[in-house]
Amino acid sequence: MSEHSPAYYGADAVRRVLTWPLVNGAVESALKAVVKDVKGSPSPGPFAIQPDRVLTNCGDRSRILLTMPAFVGNYSLGSEEASSRSTLACKLVTSFSGNPQKKPPLPSVQAHVLLFNHETGGLSAIMEGTDLTTWRTAAASLLATKYLYFRRFGSQAEVDREINVAIVGCGVQGQIHAAGFCANFRVKQLTLYNRTEAKARDLAEKLKQELASKNQTKIVVCSSPAEACEDADVICIATYSRESLIHAKDLKKSSVHINAVGAGEVNFGEVASDVYRQAKVYVDCYANAEAELKGLPAPIEGELGAVILNRRYPAEAGISIFQSMGMASEDACVAQAVHNAILQEDS
Fold it and tell me: How many CA atoms lie within 13 A of 44 on its CB side?
C-alpha cells in the first residue's frame, strides 16, 4: 500500500477493537461537541459541523440511502486531556427493513465510514461501519440512561442502583442494547418482547449463556409490549412498527426513562402520544430533530449533550424520552477512536 492509499478496515478489524469504554467515550465527545453557546466553556471549545443528512429513497421509505458528513473540531477522545483533536468523516449507510427476512438474512442497516485527513482532505481510511453504527446507537442510549435516568438519584447512581430494563424489538438494535445494558449497568431484570416470539427466546438463550458466570440478571420473554414494560425502569424500543407499542397505561413506575431508537416511517411512531404528553423529551441534536421529527407530539426539552455539560438532570419522578436520531459527529468520533485503536494495536 502506497503512502497515499487509504487503509481499509473490514468488519473483523473494526469488531476486534470495539469496546464499551471506547465507544461510550467517543459518543459522549460528539454529544458535547454539538452543543452551542455553553456558558463558561473555554474558547475555542469543542464544536461540530454536520449538515442535514441527505436521504435518498430507493423506491420507498423501507429502503433508504443516507449520506452523513461531519467535521468535529477541538475535542478529546478517552483519556486525552487536551481538547485539540479534529476529525473529518462521512458515513454512507443503507437502511433496508426487509433484509432480515431474506435468505440468508442480512442486516437491515449496512454502512461504511470514510475518514479523511482534516488538514489535506486526503482519504485516510475506509472502514466497515455496520457494527460501528450499531454500537454507537446503543452507546447513545447508555449515555442517555446514565444522565437522564440515573443522575436523577445522585452522582453515583449508575454504579449503585439496580434497574429493570425492557427491550421492545429484538432485532440487531435490541440485541446490542440488551448486551450493552447488562455490560454497563446493574440490571436486575431484563424483559424481552418481539413480534416474532422465537427471536426474543433466541436472544434470551444467548444472553443467559453469555451472562451465566457474570451476574444474576433475570431474563424474561414477554408476550406483549405492555407485559415487558409494566415493571421497567428503563425501556429501549427499536422496531419498524407503524403502530404505537408503548402506552401511558403500560408504565407503572413513578420514574421511567425510554430510549426510542426505531427507524420506521415515522421516527416517533413506536411510542404513543399519551406518553409523549407526560414526558420530557431530549434529543441528540436540535438540527436533526427539526428536520426529522416534524409532528412530534411534545416539545423538546433539550439536547443530551447540554444535560451532560450543565448537569441539569430531570426531576426524580416522571418520564424522560431520549429520541435517538443518530448523528454524523458520533460516527466521526467513533471512527476516529477505532482508527486510533487499530493503529495502536498494529504498532
Answer: 11
